[in-house]
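Researcher: First entry.
Model:
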Amino acid sequence: MASALLAGTLVVAVVLLASTGSNGRHRPAVSAGAAATPGPPKVTSRNSAHGGSRSLRSRIRQPAGSIESRRVRKLISLGRAIYCAGTRGNEVALTFDDGPGPYTRLVINKLRKHGVHATFFIVGRNIPLVPGAVRQERAQGAVGDHTFTHPVLTTLAKAAAEREIAATRTALKRSSGGPVFLFRPPYGARSASIDSIVRANGMLDILWNVDSADSLGANYAQIERNVIGGLRAGSIILMHENHGQTVRALPNIFAALKRRHLRAVSVPKLLTDDPPSLAQVRAGGSGCRIHARPSAGGH
């Protein structure tokens, strides 16, 4: 009888060891190999993923500017896209799409050196490409969901679009160490159906009113002109962290911010400190002073 009990105990121990990593924690649902998969992993429970953000918030100290404030929650409840903030302060938001990638660490280092904060919209399948980068990006401002494989969401069936969004939100919460409540659709492509998915996942759709045109092939001097020309209180600037020309343009952009007495902050901080009016939000892109078309090259 004792030998049978001992054998049973050994079997249970082997099963438990196989289901955990070397540190005793359960392995994540999305492995490093996810970057090579053709689509997002299956998300079994949207509600449990959303609830996890609340428990994480209570356990993890949030970086400055990355907290889902009361004003941000109010904007989420409206279910509309945000193109810019108000114009009463001295803050702007620099945003970088499509990472992590080969220039990610260089971008982070430049931001740190100049004391500049930013927001990074992450492609889910890219998360394993630069280990630890997403957590560093979040510490430098905030991170947001940019889908898992970067498709044109409006061409997908609703269920497929939801998988793209929900899978990245789950992976990004795990890799960044905090809640995810910002979203940006690839190419700026959205519809009422996409908006409803974003809102159901408890996120705020962030577009932009200044396009650097780096994804359209602009060189560093053109990127500088496009961004600096749109620097004014409340602006949300679109850039990409996987373009060397963008990295080259950053020092002159930082210098222009200093000359104009503007501060680059995360999107959540910008919307908390100087939220857009209800009239601005309802007007969409026309409620902001657009510098280049908001859907010209968004990735």
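Researcher: Second entry.
Model:
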Amino acid sequence: MEPQVSKVLEIQRLRTRGEIIMTNKINLVINLSILALLIYLSVAVKTIQDKVFPDPNIMIPMNMGYDNSAELKYNIQELLNNVLKDAINNQQEND
């Protein structure tokens, strides 16, 4: 009986050891991924900072070439249309 119990204990010990090693590897991969993302983020922020602040005393606004006047016009039109529809509905309900 003793050899079987010792084999079971040895298998359990090895299994636990293997799980710990796998957990350590997963933690290492997660930590390296976080480090890589932080480095990428810091480089991106530095690039934007260099474009916006070429001179420490003057700030240049970021203009990525995006013209939002058409979108703004559409949003204002939709807002006014919704307000008019609500006013018409309220007027009809009151009559």
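Model: Note on the second entry: Residues 34 and 50 are 24 Å apart (CA to CA).
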